[in-house]
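pinned: reference chain
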Amino acid sequence: MPAQGYYTIKHTFQPVWDTSSQILILGTFPSVKSRENNFYYGHPQNRFWKMLAAVYREPVPQTVDEKKGILLKHHLAVWDVVDQCDIIGSADSSIRNVIPSDIAGLLEKSAIYKILANGAKAYELYHRYQYGQTGIAAHKLPSTSPANAAWPLGRLVQAWGRELI
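pinned: its structure tokens
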């Protein structure tokens, strides 16, 4: 049984990708809001979708279908490093007892050649659990989380744009 405040949670939605995906964007594990919405970056204050839209000069996607559409149109895949873990709420810093996602399996089925980590924790966990199987080093980018207030949207767009374009 997990310690007080911790819950063992399994990732409940699939990665977004197709065989033409070239860049994989990795988060750590879905937030409470993302788990409620059953899709990536579901917290309304997370800047991921605004950043992506600005980089590609597209309207900000609102629905899950629109979000999948912008990803696939630009040959992007999105997934999380962690498939199951013990976690308190949405706090990446609380993640423990990690069961990693099968990133290597996804790479075998796609054209992905570049991996971008959305924040330091995704980068750290990817390199700890998956880099040995994939052999592809991740590029660490600033988190789009609202907790990363030091990076306003404009700076995020610049940093991410250098890797996405």
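why pinned: The longest helix spans residues 153-164. The chain has seven helices and seven strands.
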